[in-house]
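At this stage, I needed to go through a protein sequence along with its fold in token form, as given directly below:
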Amino acid sequence: MQGKDQAIKHLASWVALREGEHIHAQVVLTDGAESLQRHVLTKLAGFTLVLNIIHVDEHVWEAGTAIHGETDPHRAEWVEVQMFDILSSRNDQVIQRLEDTAVKLSPSGQAAKTLRRVANYLQRNQPYMDYAEYLRRGWPTRASGRIGIGTGVIEGTCRHLVKDRMELSGMHWTLSGAGAELIFTSLLCLYVSFTFPLLTSSTPCGTVLLNTILSTAVITARNFYFDPLIPGGLSLECCGYCHGERP
């Protein structure tokens, strides 16, 4: 991808392919980068922009460290109180506490600067921090078949499904080959997650099911890698597994 603009255009093209009555809500999660938020609001009109709760938590911990230090046990208690208020959409109260505490510290000190920076971050992102409403709508923080208010599951998937698989020593990929490999791995993970109890059994049925999963994933990756940004959309190139070789 050549920058945020192209990445979001690509995302918007995929969103358009999935439009339909089955979509109940459209939500996009970002960090607090203003440029990214502007691109999202422009290219994904109609989506609810949500500030990733994981990034909020990181900033609150920074503030807690500035006030209590890294080893004070009161730091975790302080962070817990602030995060509870943020998840309850009482962001103004948290911002006011940060500002009031900063006033009591040396204006030129690092602690005061950190508290003001975190307060400004929360203040600027308030339109995207109505977490009480997001949770009321059923947008949880963990994957449960619905939308989340944090990207931890997605980032973990990118790490284990993409990075750990695609960036092994000596690997070089074409766009279509990488796409086929990711589809293969994704389907394999999906199938295994739903059938894990049976797969772990030593019964003939478990062996047959595993072979079926592998065959289905390979065929799908080989024949149905679709990318709306590739002319014609359909790529028949496949990963090395389809030829019995590693890429």
